[in-house]
Amino acid sequence: MEKDEIVDTLNDLIRIVEDSHEAYRQAAESAAEASDGVPGADDLKALFNDLAAQRGAIVRELQRLVAEIGGAPDVGGTMLGGAHRFFLELRAAVMGRDRAAILNEVERGESECVRRYDEALAKELPLPVTAVIAQHLDRIRVDRDRMVALRDVVA
């Protein structure tokens, strides 16, 4: 696989994870605004802050990989397609104070991240890059499964 294709693949992951990072940051802020008297809002705020920090660390690691390969790492996300809808729906769910809807939207967004990571792993990337992507994918799957478990408890 050529350097440009590796860089493009990693930059695609940077964009989707940066979208996730920003969405979790905004969701934590919205949960804080909506927390007055709403049961469970504070635990969602803490969870979203934790996930935002994790996603920020993943973005930085991917950017480092791109730079090590000799490419130019993306510094922002994209608000296109399914990711865009996920973040808009997540914000509306948070503002609507519907815990089950919040968790459902988070799970959908995490599923999109998993899909993009699976696509990246299907490519013939260098072993060190594959190892990092696989590690990130494991983390994202754990978080997605956590959202599903929380959602199922609420439902």
UniProtKB/TrEMBL annotation:
One of the Pfam families matching this protein, by short name: DUF2383
Taxonomy, superkingdom: Bacteria
InterPro entries documented for this protein: CHP02284, DUF2383, Ferritin-like, UCP029477
Every DUF2383 domain range: 6-123
Name of the protein described by the UniProt record: DUF2383 domain-containing protein
